[in-house]
Write a structure and sequence with these properties.
By secondary structure, this protein is an alpha/beta fold. The chain is 43% helix and 17% strand. The radius of gyration is 25 Å and the shape is elongated. The structure holds alpha-L-arabinofuranose. The site of alpha-L-arabinofuranose has 13 residues, from helix 2 and strand 9. Alpha-L-arabinofuranose is lined by residues 55-56, 58-59, 132-133, 186, 214, 240, 242, 267-268, 288.
Length: 334
């Protein structure tokens, strides 16, 4: 039987000292503000990402962008679909904290109620990046940055276009509004921006406003109710393309011509929405870009390296009329 070599006293002391230094070094890395909560330091970044769900074409494009960008950046992505439920997102974030990922990113389904779980991530020294939607937490140190659109501006652009179109209207212009998911930042902000813009013309009145949950099915169902309850609808403002596309079915079924009998304004500019605009069924779209993946991965790398990042990074966006949609459609990626 082979004998184990025993160490002499000075060697044993040196070995103990080396292992103390090593363990101390690793612990210091794991605890550093810049290195995330993980105890590994192999240069690889692991990101835990909690997605809202798969409610719209926009969301599908956003998920693809994030997954592709993670692969391209060499970032290991742990992805969770919260199915439009805040409790699922909180559960996913807690799992990521337990797994000691390097960075947590998420698109919050609603604006409120995040302080506790964000504090847990902060205590575990895992940086959080908000993407697409923000939170209403007063303590801005709970997250590193917010990358996404200015939803108030999108609503404003939609409203300003309508004000211009209806500037010669001599009587009331009845508007119905399909809101996004209740409590979601884009629903709150687009409503606000639109209301602010149309206040410029007292003839423009929102006569009904209800959530369609950002889905086609929701848009169709709520538009059916609007049409039954309101004999004169001049304009539909839908907080996203999908609800507008669902509403098209209800409008056609009610014997009206979308884009002519009812002016339709939406937000997003996904391919199906752009097609409806090019076909004259929609009249105007304010863009909301879902292609946030590459910027998100860059931010994750910077945050992990301890670099300063801006507190707010706004997505560049534009608007589309029918003519502009026809031009843009052939190269539209999503
Ligand atoms: O947060 C972005 C919004 O969420 C998009 O406008 C909508 O389509 C999505 O569901």
């Amino acid at each position: 039987m082979r004998k184990m070599r025993t160490q002499s006293a000075p060697w044993r002391a040196a070995a103990v000292l080396a292992s103390v230094l090593l363990v101390g070094g690793v612990a210091a890395c794991g605890n550093s503000d810049t290195g995330g909560g993980g105890t590994k330091d192999d240069g690889k970044i692991t990101m835990g990402f909690s997605q809202v769900g798969a409610e719209s074409g926009w969301r599908t494009a956003n998920t693809i962008s994030i997954k592709e960008a993670a692969t391209a950046a060499g970032i290991e992505l742990k992805f969770d679909d919260a199915q439009q439920k805040q409790e699922n997102q909180i559960k996913a974030i807690r799992n990521y904290i337990q797994q000691k990922v390097d960075v947590i990113a998420f698109s919050p389904v609603v604006e409120s109620g995040w302080d506790t779980v964000l504090k847990e991530a902060k205590d575990a020294k895992i940086p959080v990046i908000l993407t697409d939607r923000s939170v209403d937490s007063a303590d801005k140190t709970l997250y590193k940055t917010f990358l996404g659109s200015d939803f108030v501006k999108e609503g404003k652009l939609a409203g300003e276009w309508l004000v211009e179109q209806k500037k010669t209207a001599s009587g009331p212009v009845n508007i119905v509004e399909l809101q996004g998911s209740t409590g979601a930042a884009p629903a709150n902000d687009r409503k606000k921006g639109f209301a602010e813009a149309i206040a410029a013309n007292p003839n423009l009145k929102v006569i009904a406003s209800q959530t369609g949950d950002f889905t086609r099915a929701g848009g169709k169902q709520v538009m059916e109710q609007f049409l039954k309850a309101n004999p004169k609808i001049d304009v539909l403002f839908a907080h996203n393309d999908d609800m507008g596309l669902g509403a098209l079915e209800a409008i056609t079924a009610a014997g009206k011509v979308p884009g002519k009998d009812i002016t339709i304004i939406t937000i997003d500019a996904v391919k199906d929405g752009m097609q409806a605009l090019a076909d004259g069924k929609f009249n105007f779209i304010a863009e909301c870009s879902p292609l946030l993946g590459p910027q998100l991965m860059d931010l994750a790398k910077k945050v992990k390296a301890g670099e300063e990042v801006p507190a707010r990074i706004e997505t560049e966006e534009t608007t589309f009329t029918t003519e502009q949609a026809k031009e843009a459609l052939p190269n539209r990626k999503y």
